[in-house]
Amino acid sequence: MIHSLRRLLPRRPRAVDLVVAAALFACFFPGSRMTLPGHDPGITSWPGVLVAGVSSLAVLWRRTLPRTTVVVTLCCAMGVAGLGCLLTVLVIGPLMVALYTLARLSDRTTANLFTAFGITLLVGTSLVVGSGGEPLVLKVLGPVFWLLLPTSLGTTTRLRAAYLEAVQARAEHAERTREKEARHRVTEERMRIARDLHDVVAHHLILANLQAGTVIRLLGTRPDEAERIAGELAGTTLSAVRELKATVGLLRHADDSETSSGPTPGLAQLADLAASFEPAGLSVAVTVEGKPQPLSAGADLTAYRIVQEALTNVTKHAGTGSAEVRLRYAHDRLGITVTDHGGTTAPSSPATTGGYGVIGMRERALSAGGRLRAGHRPQGGYEVATELPLPPPTQNSLA
């Protein structure tokens, strides 16, 4: 039943105010009869009833006009004090309810100002025109206590409501941020897998296409050479299937029985990568400057994929039979340059063929904390240059 009332009362504020006003008006009569020992009973004439009625009715507007309600109930309380009534909680109840509502709906400065103003006027009225038989301490401390109490309760209620609202707002903000971060991570993972699939498919399919074309040309004139290249074509397709399986396996759950096969590609497999382009007619020279240093797993894979995509673009667009891969190890960065010198046919830029090769390489470099530049060389050919950060020396030594 208590829980039902708690849910019902906020939905019926007008009914609550009517009940409160009726209760305050009813409490005025026993309160007006309270006196100190040896003194006459309090007021019983119609002015007291009129003042009590006005003060109680003013409570009905406490939610919409809290300041006006305080002023009206304060004037009524001063009238009661002037009639010689003992200022108890039963008599000044409407003023206490009005101050509580004002403290709950307004700021602390406003509530304290109205309370201090009310205490001053009520105590002054009680001292000047009130009953002369009441002790001075009772005339002063009674109104002070009864008016400070509702103000303190109203301020506490307002602060607690503000705290709960702030906690709820922070929880909602955290939930929205968590959902946004989750969507962002899903998008990043999807883009990373898309880049991997693009690199794997583009690299192996282009090599397979070139090898198949070579086999067709050599079948009639050089069957032995055509048979050898056909065997390399089978290895190329098998390698493509293996890398595709490893990449798509990232989408599976951890409890799947199948796991990705083979090590993660990196610069350690750079020689094999360069050799894989030989059947396609591209000779790749790899040079290393400086002392080789280990990279993080992500940067190592990024470096491998950038070189792979750059060499694939050379095979597709450059029309040349040679390319150069240069690795430059500095103190804190690794520079990678993939260069071709162009061929006899007019090369087409990989950035203008509608593909995503250069875009994917640039995204990979940025995700690893590096940068990438790609464009035509003044002396001819095309160049892809990237810089990737190396781990601090302390991490290198620990590794």
From TrEMBL:
Keyword entries, A-Z: ATP-binding, Kinase, Membrane, Nucleotide-binding, Phosphoprotein, Transferase, Transmembrane, Transmembrane helix, Two-component regulatory system
Domain Signal transduction histidine kinase subgroup 3 dimerisation and phosphoacceptor positions: 189-255
Reactions the enzyme catalyzes: ATP + protein L-histidine = ADP + protein N-phospho-L-histidine
Top-level taxonomic group: Bacteria
Claim: Manganese is one of the keywords in the record: no
Domain Histidine kinase/HSP90-like ATPase: 302-391
Stored InterPro entries: HATPase_C_sf, HATPase_dom, Sensor_HK_TwoCompSys, Sig_transdc_His_kin_sub3_dim/P
Gene Ontology CC terms, in alphabetical order: membrane
Region described as Disordered: spans on this chain: 375-399
Pfam family for this entry, one: HisKA_3
Compositional bias ranges of the Pro residues kind: 389-399
Enzyme Commission number, as recorded: 2.7.13.3
GO molecular function annotations of the record: ATP binding; phosphorelay sensor kinase activity; protein dimerization activity
TM region positions: 43-61, 70-103
UniProt KW ATP-binding keyword: yes
Annotated protein name in UniProt: histidine kinase
Organism this protein belongs to: Streptomyces sp. R08
